[in-house]
Amino acid sequence: MQPHELTIAALADALRRGDLSSVELTRHYLGRVNAHASLNAFVTVDEELSLRHAAAADERISRGDAGPLTGIPVAQKDIFCVKDVLTTCGSRMLSNFVSPYDSTVARKLGESGAVLLGKTNMDEFAMGSSNETSHYGAVCNPWDPATVPGGSSGGSAAAVAARLAPLATGTDTGGSIRQPAALCGITGLKPTYGRVSRYGMVAFASSLDQGGPMARSAEDAAILLGAMAGFDPRDSTSVDRPVDDYRAGLSAGVEGLRIGLPREYFGEGLAGDVRSAVEAAVDELRRLGVRTVEISLPNSTLAVPCYYVLAPAEASSNLSRYDGVRYGFRAELYDDLLEMYKRTRSQGFGVEVKRRIMIGTYTLSAGYYDAYYLKAQQLRRLIADEFRSAFESCDVIAGPTSPTTAFALGAKTDDPVAMYLNDIYTIPANLAGLPAASVPAGFGDGNRPVGLHLIGNYFEESRVLSVAHAFQRATDWHMRVPPGFE
Amino acid sequence: MSLAREDVEKIAHLARLELSEEEIPAYVENLSRILGLVEQMNSVDTTGVVPMAHPLDTHLRLRPDAVTEPDRREEIQRTAPATEGGLYLVPKVIE
Fold first, then answer.
1. What is the pTM of this model?
2. Rounded distance, CA A236 to CA A109, Å?
3. Which of B38, B80, B92 minimises the CB distance to A327?
4. Mutation choice for B interface testing from A239, A341, A362, A414 by most B CBs within 10 A
5. Which H/E stretch holds residue A383?
6. Domains of chain A: residue spans and CATH
């Protein structure tokens, strides 16, 4: 077996036994990253730095001081600040930003002994569902390079799917871990809001942003989540609560579990091939002993309009920090301060980011606040309450992650509203703050992956992962490799 | 809700963005479409619903008023476009 065919647990065993060194493993993956550079999955690769991490990990392993991630290469979404490494967030605005500090996620992964394999491409400031808004170019979906990998964590999803990285981090504000995971045929989990620290994770919409793992399987994701999760005093909304042993929780089993199927998630707008694959996946879960119950989440259908008030409002506020004064890009020519601000921001931000800043500026402006922002916050509560009552009659909610499989590059770039509707099933969990995963569930037309969406109750990441794990023990969709990447 | 060209120019100014003449029509069209999407919210009566600002409805923590960060000014200012003597430089604002 080649190293990129092994699970994280098998890699950790091989490293501990000395069958393989972390330097060898890291070289192997760097070789794959270079060989498949045309996917454009990475913005930054620093081989010397990666090999330094690997050598340090090998030393730690030889001392008998290895954890489950020691010596394992992990790709970081380019939204996580890593000290002394370029952190662009997919934007020209941060094209020269070498971070003077570590994000908490980067620090924790460093402490676990993981090797930084590189920084992955993403939609600019995580605003997008196709990775096409990146200043560093689109990413190709390894299953079909003419299609998008999804977004905003498109580089991470493509890298894991193409076996260029065994693990990657992602962030999810409206579906940015789960939708690309679905479109690339991998496993991705957005934890409960507050479970993974946002410190040093470039802010988009702070009441929605949440980091999480992207991996081939639920088991691999559980291992990475264990290293990422935990209370952090540096994040004011981090939750002070012990971290579950996600790996131990995998084998909890699904027998007798009640799976809620929201009527609204199987209605109009869902492509036929996605519906068939998701229904077959639900049948598989039934064979494994779950009981399905029909539920209804009527206000969830308005999650997209609600989100496109709240997220741009928070973004317009968060992105006001990019003024060309303290860090990042500054325009070259200007006569006064106002012109410096305007030119810096106009040249530094791409079109989608400008659109969202302007929507947020408008909905927060005097006279419109109640009609938009307040209304959206009220709707947000109705959506969250609806989940609360749904979880009285079921343990986990299942449905499709995305209404379609991967679409062609360029197909939706001229129509922002069509692009936004990709996240129709994923946004509700962000608004409510619930944990949710996407799990490979077969293929639609043209051999394009389909994702099964699993939403859990607050802090029940472990239960979501155990359902995903049971499904993956009974199926092999997550083992499929895109042609040409074996 | 359909925005006019002047609305978009005003919003751009508030957001400290400069749009070229050629760019404006596309912004007028797309921002109007997004607001059209957003207005679907009005199909639900939310009278009396308490706005939800945060998913966990928790209170922000307080911490002791103690210095926890060292002085790293030089390191932090290394990322700035222009500094002098520990200060950030911007175009002259006071005549």
1. 0.97
2. 21
3. B80
4. A362
5. helix A375-393
6. 3-253 (3.90.1300.10)
